[in-house]
Amino acid sequence: MNKEWLDKDFYAVLGVSKTATADEMKKAYRKLARELHPDKNPGNKTAEDRFKEVSEAYDVLSDDKTRQEYDEARSLFAGGGGGGFGGGSGRPGGGAQYDFSDMFGGQDAGFSDLLGDIFTRGRGGRRQQQPRRGADLESEITLGFNEALDGVTVPLRLSSEGACTSCNGTGAKAGSVPHLCPTCEGSGQTTRNAGGFAFAEPCPTCHGRGLIVDDPCQTCQGSGRGVSARTVQARIPAGVKDGSRIRLKGKGAPGERGGANGDLYVVVHVTPHPVFTRKGDNLGVTIPLTFAEAALGANIKVPTTDGKTVTLKIPPGTANGRSFRVRGRGVTRKDGTKGDLLATVDVLVPTALNDEARGALRAFADLTDQGDPRAELLASVNNP
Hints:
Mean pLDDT: 79
Distance between the termini: 82 Å
Strand order of the largest sheet: 10-11-15-14
CATH architecture of the largest domain: Orthogonal Bundle
Oligomer: single chain
Number of helices: 10
């Protein structure tokens, strides 16, 4: 049943009454089809749209089964007023126009299920149980700093609900079999009327299983469900951040009645590194530098996360706290490229000097005397 049918008065489209016979509808349709056919009205968009509308109406009403469903739905949802969905849009039939997808949370599937329940109940039939998707699971892991950078495959031990291994999910003791629930006839659902609407709910007799177990399995007490443990190999991609939540599709709990498996969500914790820090796709490292190296310049070795080193050229007169960029030595991105390594220098001031070193520094200070380096600062404070 198409929910859009409820918003259309197909009898008015064909210009016939609700009690029209099949021959009367066929005659009306043929007359309109000849008048509105695109070959007879080339380039006429209005006639083309009207032709499609007439064809749709006849397709629905010419089939006894779909006509019955259409009439039942229009009667039920219009409160017995057939055509109460046309309304202010200029369509035939009075009353307000309703959008039933809004009524049911915008979910067409739920709306279709409701109509399916109504029509199936009206014909004395029963619905078959639908496949059920497995539940999503969540787990946590802790990775080392380098493991998070490079990516790693880790085994995860999971416990989830699944079919009982003793009875293979039947819920019945070995040597016996369950039988069809007489209340819901195996569908697992019953319908409840509420103000003209019919809502599906789990069968109270079989609790939604569709089966009755006379001699229950001792392991699962007749539920057919049990807790199973399994090991899943989880691939953690390179560059994962601390606190990331990774989705592994189909690694969750198994589905029921042929339904798809759920997903597994893995929350990742990353232990800090004693040397390196991370900010986005870049890594950081602090490099000690002697006073002489900072003043005169030097070529120094900088460590990388893979245990190797790169040579960094320090220019003369480098100030404390200056950062140098080593490209391509950072975190691996999703596209395979890498961020950078930022090396920040920490100029070391000597704390223990002998007489000769102390004299050399005094001589250096005399040779490089540029006056009081704080004079401008003090002047700006005193004379704002």
